Amino acid sequence: MRVALVRHVPETFAECLRSEAPPVPIDVARARAQHAAYVGALRARFERVVELPADPRFPDCCFVEDTAVIVGARALVSRPGAPERRGEEVAVRPALEALGLACLAMSAPATLDGGDVLVLGDEIFVGRSRRTNAEGIAQLCAAFPERRVHEVLVARGLHLKSSVTAVGERTIVVATGAEAVAAAIARALPEIRALFVPDVRVANALWLGDDLLHLSGYPASREILARAGRRLVPIEASELEKADGGLTCLSLRVP
Ligand code: CIR
Fold first, then answer.
1. Tens digits of per-residue pLDDT, 33-70?
2. What is the mean pLDDT of residues 150-160?
3. Is 16 close to ligand 1, i.e. is its CB under 6 Å away?
4. Phi, psi (5° rounding) for residue 208?
5. Quick check: helix, strand or coil at residue 8?
6. Which one in 63, 122, 196, 197 has a CA-CA gap of 20 to 30 Å to 215?
7. Beta-carbon neighbour count of residue 146 at 10 Å?
8. Is 150 among the catalytic positions?
9. pLDDT in tens, 112-146
């Protein structure tokens, strides 16, 4: 991975979308500090990190992964599934073009969040979820016709990658309870090894070469993640978790 793209946390972050109101409200200053530490961890592992300014009209704009899907030298700029988030992608597109990516747009009624797209080698898995619809999946297939695209039903949770991410060439980490998702992936990739973690949020981990960035504070799940054979890098993201965010959501990675 050469370049990562991130977007700062806006002052309106506490108004973000979330599945449940957190018992302790979001501390925006702390969210910004946690985001800065995450960006620091990326800087140490990428040649370059492009930082886009926050847009206060979009409280969720730091979850930049949802605004595009990058495969090879092409990016499909998404039409986010939540109406409140539509428009976040506008500032992302020129940044992707400046990185040399050929950008394709989506058109209504298609919706797709990048958090629903998991690339595993040559295969693309896409979650059909509350945010990604059938038209969105069709436009994803059309954008990357050279790849096989597998649809996976997301019955629980926000996105596909809320419950499964890659932690190696042939290893995925999966939230306990998302066995059906793991089985759908195994149908396409029978050699895949799944590590099931008891803490759902830990299933969203960010694999970067020898390192595996994971949410701190979940010792039982960390012990299981260690079986991936990577150097574990804990990242504190309590305030971003309150917004249903994880570690992949906070960046777009350009191979
Ligand atoms: C949302 O509901 O859209 C944001 N609060 C969280 C988005 C997290 N993104 C991701 O998992 N890719």
1. 999 999 999 999 999 999 999 999 999 999 999 999 99
2. 96
3. yes
4. -130, 90
5. coil
6. 122
7. 8
8. no
9. 999 999 999 999 999 999 999 999 999 999 999 99
The residue nearest atom 3 of ligand 1, judged by CA position, is 17
17 lines ligand 1 (CB under 6 A): yes
**Distances from the Cα of 251 to the Cα of 8, 133, 182, angstroms:** 10, 23, 24
State the virtual CA torsion across 74, 252, 136, 129 in degrees, nearest 10: 150
Which residue owns the Cα nearest ligand 1 atom 8?
245
3-state SS class at 212:
strand
Query: 16 an active-site residue?
Result: no
Assess whether the previous peptide bond of 23 is cis (omega < 30° from 0).
no
* C-alpha 92 chain-centroid distance: 15
Asked whether 66 lines ligand 1 (CB < 6 A), one says: yes
Strand pairing partners for 121?
A: none
Question: Is the peptide bond preceding residue 59 cis, with omega within 30 degrees of 0?
Answer: no
Instruction: Tell me what pLDDT residue 23 has.
Output: 87
Q: Contact at 8 Å (CB) between 160 and 117?
A: yes
Task: Tell me the C-alpha distance between 152 and 168, whole Å.
Answer: 20
| AA identity, residue 228 | A
Dist CA 80 CA 67 (whole Å): 7
Rounded CA gap, 212 and 58, in Å? 29
Cα 219 to ligand 1 centre (Å): 24
